[in-house]
Amino acid sequence: MTRHRRLLSEFCLILAVYLLVAVPAAHAQDPPTGGKTVEKVFKYNPPSRSAPAGRVGGSTRGLPGSDFVVEVLSPSDHVGLSASDQPVLYWYLSRPVDKPVEVTLDTAELSSAAPLMETTLKKSWPAGISAVSLRDLGARLKPDVTYCWSVAVVLDSAQRSTDVTASGLIRHVRSATGPASGDPESIARMHAEKGYWYDALAAISRDIDRQPERRKQRADLLEQVGLSAPAAFDRATLGKTSSR
After folding, report:
1. Which of 182, 210, 173, 212 is nearest to 87 (CA)?
2. What string of DSSP letters covers 159-191?
3. Is the pTM of this model over 0.90?
4. Which pairing describes strands 164-172 and 146-153: parallel, antiparallel, or unpaired?
5. Quick one: which of 42, 60, 185, 218 is 20 to 30 A from 66 by CA?
6. Tell me: the pLDDT tens digits for 128-175?
7. What is the CATH number of domain 3-27+50-175?
8. φ, ψ dihedrals at 188, nearest 5°
């Protein structure tokens, strides 16, 4: 069993414990809103939050004292859905890194002897949000199956204990209305309202470098699932673009 495979196993065990203890306790202690409503460009309506927690952050593994953080762009307290069986997966790096990134996909039960997909992407990675399509990796999700996916930045291939790793959950659920059509903003809004996290994120991320205003929209979406660091990065990038 590879180290990345063992990390996936640990992650799924954490989910089971979190489901029994942390999720019910967190919702029992939710503070009152006082009737205030925060307007968002996209209102994300998540599926039931009685499902397992959906994300484990990547700052807990890595070099001692390192400020390098990896986060997968996945909801923190429920399984993110996709209407596509070959969605795009996104992650955030707190600083640039010239190291390989290993992407692993497996069922949440880890029922097979090897991961369904494990690939190493070798390139220089900028700070901020990066992505890979399962279509490009030749992987396909089965309907109504919960998968773990994980991103590991391999800082030292000879010392894999220094990997900085983050993991999330995804489930492919077919849409009753079929494929979405229209402009990316309308598509993103429709997916967000119907609870398809990964599809809403992908729609608003398309051509985001050519249309900087979408960074604010993406930041609004990310904040709704607790992804404050990637959201802050998008807002800071938008501010630099606007000041030129």
Report:
1. 173
2. -GGG-EEEEEEEEE---TT-S--S-HHHHHHHH
3. no
4. antiparallel
5. 218
6. 999 999 999 999 999 999 999 999 999 999 998 889 999 999 999 998
7. 2.60.40.10
8. -60, -45
165 DSSP β-pair partners: 152
8-state DSSP, 106: E
SS3 158: coil
Q: Where are the beta strands (DSSP E) in the chain?
A: 55-56, 70-72, 80-82, 88-93, 101-107, 117-121, 128-133, 146-153, 164-172
237 or 50: which carries more pLDDT confidence?
Answer: 237
Residue 231: half-sphere exposure toward Cβ, Cα within 13 Å: 13
pLDDT of residue 47: 86
Cβ neighbors of 175 (< 8 A, separation 6 or more) are 83, 194, 196
Average pLDDT over residues 92-98: 94
Q: Name the residue type at position 209.
A: D
What is the rounded CA–CA span in Å between residue 88 and residue 74? 12
Which range, of 12-26, 40-54, 153-167, averages the lowest pLDDT? 12-26
Residue 14 has pLDDT above 60, yes or no: no
- How confident is residue 66, by pLDDT bands cut at 50, 70 and 90? low
The number of residues making up the chain comes to: 244
Cβ neighbours for 238, distance < 8 A, ≥ 6 positions apart: 212, 213, 215, 216, 219
